[in-house]
Amino acid sequence: MSRCIKTSLVILLVLAFLPAMPVLAQTNTDCSYQGTHSNGALYCITMPPPPPYGAWNGDLVIFAHGYVAVNKPLEIPWSQMLFSDGMGGVISMPVLINSLGYAFATTSYSQNGLAVQQGILDILDLIEVFIAEVGDPARIYLVGASEGGLVTTLAIERHPTAFTGGLATCGPIGDFRGQVDYWGDFRVIFDYMIDSPTLDVLPGTAVNIPKSLMAKWNLFYAPRVADALTANPFGTQQLFSVTGAAFDAANPLTMGETTLGVLWYNVFATQDAVRKLGGQPFDNRERVYSGSINDSLLNASVKRFKAKPAALEEIANAYETSGIILRPLVTMHTSGDPIVPSWHQEKYELKVAANNPLSPFYSMMIERYGHCSFTLAEMLTGFGALVGMSTGQTLPAPVFLQTQGSRAESFMFGQ
Fold first, then answer.
1. Rounded to an integer, what distance in angstroms lies between the CA atom of residue 37 and that of residue 107?
2. Residue 30 binned pLDDT confidence (cut-offs 50, 70, 90)
């Protein structure tokens, strides 16, 4: 049954045999097994150290990574799998998972950008690779972040016999079309409230992104956005009032962080999504915007766009979750997620309850600003909940990790 935890969770990590060691990044040289799928995706498998330093418990954890821009090279995004150790160093996710006794595996997917469907297929193929290279695991847990959170949820729903259970964090699992509209709405309201023909902060529109905008985003356009927000604090306030985008009220600078984050996805994800969905998916023709100082003028003046029916049909058939769960699923979200809003988890809870309120489902809502901004303790709590639901057992403590008091170790998880 769905339960929602509204406060940050803390678990006790036991100091054991080895000190925390800083790790700058995982590389292919650290993989016990590595290679390329038949479709070009790269994979990496790491195993726990042999006795007396460790032992494989027979189970496998697979990581489904978050969004990677389509203009990036195809490679495993190790930067999405780093923990802060609280002492100036970082620890890679494979090292952490292996320290718990689990084998670890991940894949680059065979394409960047919108890769939800391909990600599911590549992960299923990764299971076969693991069986061929290592052997048949007793249990398979799928863990995903951001886009990987949707990959995880859909995989658990649609391929229940392949997995023991899943942990889906900060993913667009409640309403994928709503996620598309959230990014599109933010761009059209930004263009209305902040941009103008005289300023020309961002070229193109919410549904038509020039290649030059992607190419010059970091060095030219992102600074222009930041300058425009600073020059127009009233427009910035109106932007957030209308869109409802999250920011930290105690730190107004997070308005800039949110704006740049959401616009990044509009810039880098839009044209790729149009190609893969079979058309333009954003539709605000009948949207009634509210929250501005003059809603009538806003709704009369804001740019309107029509979605292509084929794109909406593809979203409905391939990207929307059902809430039908046959295997344990744990979801986690931060209440102030500016990229993938927290209402996704709330909508998914309603889907599960409508299908079967006794489904093996557990949800955690963490009161914090940020996309996938969980502490290490919270992530281990979520994974521990999944293990407990699946086996009735308690998650063992990492053999090299400790916390000191209530110090929060940040988990740098996902784009």
1. 9
2. confident
Cα–Cα distance for residue pair 158/160, rounded to 1 Å: 6
- Exposure string over 193-220, b if 16+ CB within 10 A, otherwise e: bbbeeeeebbebbbbebeeebbeebeee
- Identify the band that residue 29 occupies on the pLDDT scale cut at 50, 70 and 90: low
Burial class (CB in 10 A: 0-12, 13-18, 19+), 267: buried
- Domain 4-174+323-412: which CATH number of 3.40.50.460, 3.30.160.60, 3.40.640.10, 3.40.50.1820: 3.40.50.1820
Helix axes 116-133, 147-158, angle to 10 degrees: 70
* pTM as predicted: 0.89
pLDDT band at 91 (very low <50, low <70, confident <90, very high): confident
Write out pLDDT tens, residues 131-141: 999 999 999 99
